[in-house]
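Quick one: co-fold with FE2/S2 (inorganic) cluster.
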Amino acid sequence: MAADTDIFSPERYAATRLPIEEASPLPPEVYFSQDWYDREIDTIFRTGWLVATREEELPNPGDYVQLNIIGEPLVIIRGDDGEIRALSNSCRHRGSELLTGSGNCRNITCPYHAWTYGLDGALRAAPSMNDALDFNKADHGLPSVRVETWAGFVFINFDADAVPLLTSLGSLVERLAPYRMEEMKVTKKWENRFNANWKIWVENSREGYHVRTVHRESLDTFYPGAVRSAFRPMGEPMVWACSSSDNENGLYVPRNATLPFVVGLSEEDRETTHFMIHYPHLLLNVPPDRITFHQYFPDGPEWTRIVSWCCFPQSTIDLPNFETDADKRYYPSMDLFLAEDKGICEVVQRGLRGRLPSLARYSPSEERTVHEFSNYVLDHVIGPDSAG
Ligand code: FES
Ligand SMILES: [Fe+2]
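Sure, here it is.
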């Protein structure tokens, strides 16, 4: 693509670097270019903390989930020592994928020639290898990447030098402590594949500007009052961003819902839904009664796999009306909003094609968090010194 020859030139992004009152969105080619995408993977996804799963998905030794992320086959597995590890899911013999899906195993046995690894990734058995000179099983364990946990979330990081997870989370740790997310349990997961660049999904998730159009038909059906509520940008750019909505008439708490709020929340939190992002990979929505979050898996410049999760407190799940209320009043709105957001993200990806698109300006009142995100991307792909 000829246009890619200077795609990493800082001057090209000068209009996005301006204060939001003057700034323009990122140019369309960063949503298509393979070169740009490859550099995003290296500078954003291979350096940041990525959500792998929830701890309750792996309660026992030997529990595992397969995870294919940014082209890297991994398995997240709990060892006999209780530790959760992220191991390469590629056999050290000739590379076969080792485990698929999720489940429990006593050891990891390759389906091809039965090399067998412990839950910690150590190679334990390699049949018919006695004649191989200087072959030492201790040299051929499965590579691993860093794992750290917070509030029930299991994160991984490919960068051995990255700051600890809790440092990267900053004030989110204290801000969200009252929700006791570590006591919540996954009750439903959705998986979608979008024909759109991952940034289009994040940008869409960062603003409420589209809510009154894209979700026009659905919103008031589930969340009366939501169309009148305002998103207030808050937070700390480049660490996390948070938009909040006043819970007027129960925003993001469904109509006629009878499931309780988390006990012990402040008056402000009982009246607020927080829409947060921890860059680069956790989009977290926190109303007073549950959490929903989204993992996004870039799959080339024009495709993104999104896994969306809903978690409730165990005490809520134990209520006799839980399943009925969740099925009738909570999950259908997630189904619908995801379908509506998927649709509009794909429409945007299509609209950005060609050579004519030229993007004008951001709305300062509605898109401050989108502007922050665009600059976060530039800081990583181009470098922070290009600012200004
Ligand atoms: S590829 Fe795994 S044992 Fe041969
Ligand atoms: Fe939306």
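If it helps, Residues 49 and 157 are 5 Å apart (CA to CA).
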